Amino acid sequence: MTTLTESLNPGALTSGRLPRMAEPGILVGAAITGLTISALIAGGNIALGVVLAYVIFLVTIEIVARIVEGPRQAADRRARSLIVGAFVLALIPLGSVTYEVVKNGMARFDVNYFSMSMRNVVGEGGGAAHAITGTLWVTGMASLISVPIGLMTAIYLSEYGSRSKLSQSITFFVDVMTGIPSIVAGLFAYSLMAMLFGPGTVSGFAGSIALSVLMIPVVVRSCEELLRLVPNELREASYALGVPTWLTIVKVVVPTAISGIVSGVILAVARVIGETAPLLIAAGFTASLNNNPFSGPMMTLPVFVYDSYAHPGIPPQAYLDRAWAGALTLIVIVMVLNLTGRLIARRFAPKTGR
Amino acid sequence: MTKPVLETSTTEPEGMLASDGPDPKRHGDPVFRGFATGAGILILAILAAVAAFLLFQGAPALIADPAALTEQGYGPFWAWVLPFIFGTLWAAILALVIAVPIAIGIALFISHYAPRRLAQPLGYVIDLLAAVPSVVFGLWGGLVLAPAVVPLYTWLNQNLSWIPLFSGQVSGTGRTILTAAIVLATMVLPIITSLCREVFLQAPRLHEEAALALGATQWEMIKLAVFPYARPGIIAAIMLGLGRALGETMAVSMVLSGSANITIQVLTSNNPNTIAAVIAQGFPEAFGLKTNELIAAGLVLFVITLAVNMVARWIVSRRAAYSGAN
C-alpha cells in the first residue's frame, strides 16, 4: 500500500515501484482467469486457456506498470515477459516431440523389431533389422571417407596454410558447403553413379558418398578449431628437439587434441545419421537385408521411417507403429552419440596451459 | 689461432652432412604436406563436382525440345519449376517470420535474462532441438501437429478471412503450408538462436554497464548497447536459417500435401509444393527425362541456397574482421 501511495504522490523523489509480489500475483490471477474462460466457452481447451492467460497477464501488467512505474519500466517488463514467453514457447515442440515419439514408439519397441526385416511381411509384425544394419553400413562408410579427408584438411588449414589464398578459399567454401541442401547431396551421388554405372544405380555406397558431402565440412570445422587450441609451446618444444614438422603433427599436435577430434567426429556422425533425403535418392528402398554396400538398394533407418509413413499398407496402424518405433530408435541413437561426444570432450579435454 | 677454430666450425657440420647424407626423415615433410594440401583441394573439387554433375545430368531437361518434355517429362522446364520455386521461397519466408522473433527472444533470454548458472544447460536444451533428425520432425508434424492445428485454422479462417493470407476454403486435414512453415520454424530455431546468442554474449561489457549506470532499464540497455553491436550477426544468422529452410526436404514433404499452384492463401488444401519435396516425392518413380528435370530442379535449389549462404558467410567474415580490429 505504501509504495502505491508514494508513486501516486508527485512530490516523491523516487519513482514508484510495484511491490515484489505483484508480478507473480498477476500471473496466478491471469492463469486462473484464462483457464476459467476457456473452460466456460471452449470446454477446457488447455492450449486456448494458456494463450488467454498469457495475453491477460501481458495486458494487466502493462496497465498496472504504466500507472505505477511509468512507460519506461512498463516497456522493460513487457520485453522481459515476451522474452521468457518465447523461451517457454520453444520448449513446447521439444517436449511434444519427445513425448509423442516415446509414447507411440513403445508400441513396437520390442525384440522382433530389432531382429526381423520386412521381407515377406505384409501388415503386422516384421521389424527394422535390415534398416538398422543398412544405417550402420552407410554411416560407417561415410565416416571412413570423411574422417581422413576432413582431418587432413583441418591439419592443412591449422598447420600449413596460415592465411594463404588457398586456405582462405577452403575455409570459405567449407562454410558454404555446410549449407548444401541434403537432397542436393543425394542428387550428386545419384548423378555420379549414373555416369559411372548407368542410370538408376542405387547402392549403399552411393548413400555413403552423399552423406560424406554433408559430413566433411562438419569434421573440418570441429577438427580445425581443436587443432588451433593446441598451445604453440608444444610445437616449438618439438621443433627444438629436431623433430620434423610432420612428425610433430602426428606425434604431438594430433594426440594432444585427440579427445576433441573424437568427440567432433561423433557429433558429425550424429548429425548425418538421421539424414533421409539423400539416402532416399542414392541408396533406395528394399524390404530385405542387404549386406553388400556395393550392389543393390540398401534400406536405412530414416528412409524406413519415411517409407512406412508415406506408403503404408493395410492395416495402416501397423506401418505407423513401425515408423514411430523407428523414430524412437533414431532419437535414442542420436542422443547417445551426442552425450558420448560431449562427455569425451569434457572428460579428456586437453590441458591448454595455465 | 683463428684458423683451426674456423676450420672445425665449418667442417664439422659439413662432415656430419656428408657422412649421414640428407636426413631420410625429411622426406616425410613434403609428402605429408602434399597429402594435407591435397585433401583441402579435394574439398574444393568435390564442391565443383557437385555443381558439374548436377549440370551435366540436368542439362537434357534444360536444352531438350519442349514437345519432348511435355511428352516424356513433366512439361517445359521453367513453366514446371516456377511454382515450386515460389513454394520454396514462400515456405522459407513464412518459417523465418515465425522463427526469427522467437529465436532472438530465446537468445536474449539465455544471454541476458537467465540466471548465469542456468544459461549453459538451457543453451544445451535448445541445441538438442537441432539434433532431432528431420524425419522425426516430419512424422511429428504430419501425425501430431497437423490434426492439432485444425481448430485454430478454422477459427482464423472464420474470423480473419478478410486478411488475404487466411482467406479461401479452410483445409480439413491441417496439412497446409502454414503447418509446414511451423515445422520448418522449429528446425531453424536452434540455428538462429545459437548464432545470435554468441554475438549477444560478445557485446562489449563496458557499453552495457555504461548504459545501466546512466539509469537505463535492462531493455533500454539491450536496445542501446547490444542490438546495434549485434545487427550484422543477427542478419547473418537469419540468412543461414533461410539457407536451411530453403533446402529442408523431409519435414515439408511429410507434412505438406502440395501441388503446382501459386497462391498466398496459407490455410487451404491448394498449397504450392517446394523444390526439395517435389524431388523427394517424385524421384523414386521417375525415369528418363523426368529424372533429368528433377535433377535440374535440384540445380536451381543448389544455386539459390549457395547464393544465400555465400552472402551470409560474407557478412560473417566481414564482421569477424571488424571485431578483430576492435
What does this protein structure show overall?
The complex is a heterodimer of chains A (354) and B (326). Chain A is an all-alpha fold. Chain A folds into two domains: 2-107, no CATH class; 114-347, MetI-like fold (Orthogonal Bundle), CATH 1.10.3720.10. Chain A contains 14 helices and no strands. Chain A is flat, with a radius of gyration of 29 Å. The mean pLDDT of chain A is 86. By secondary structure, chain B is mainly α. Chain B has one domain: MetI-like fold, CATH 1.10.3720.10. In chain B, 79% of the residues lie in helices and 1% in strands. Chain B has twelve helices and two strands, in the order H-H-H-H-H-H-H-H-H-H-E-E-H-H. Chain B has helices at residues 2-20, 28-63, 66-72, 77-113, 116-131, 134-159, 177-202, 205-213, 218-247, 250-255, 275-282, 289-325, and strands spanning 258-259, 271-272. The longest helix of chain B has 37 residues, at 77-113. The chains are: A mainly alpha (354), B mainly alpha (326). The interface between A and B is large, with 96 and 94 residues.
